[in-house]
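seq:
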Amino acid sequence: MAAPLIEESLEIAGTPAQVWSVVSDLQRMGEWSPQCKKMFVFGGPVKAGTRTANINRRGLLIWPTTAKVVTFEPNKQIAWKITENNTVWGFVLTETAGGVTVTHSRVAADGQTSALSSFLVDKVFGGNDSFEPELAAGMRETLGKIKLAVEG
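struct:
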């Protein structure tokens, strides 16, 4: 069973609009994420319903996924659901006195993913006990790179 929620947060010195301009530019995800190397966005500007094709990498393993933007509130939150495993990834922006706290998360409803995803995580990625901490570390790395992009 997958963790129902994996999330990491980081405060960024900037306005919600400045942070939003980075986190909502899904075509740049490959610059931030250590695992999602490329997101191809279809259908113009990102909005609710936008579809993506993604190239992911972990060591020598490379695999594609697809997603659909399921939450889109400018300057507040964006999330996309991965078709192949039913998880939802996204960012929530919360304005603070010092800027914006950005929370990056992965939600697996009721700890469930697809049968194929569960099999691959167990047999190829070493199981949830090693794979999910790696995902959390990747979220921290992603947030750190987004912070550098915003704060310059």
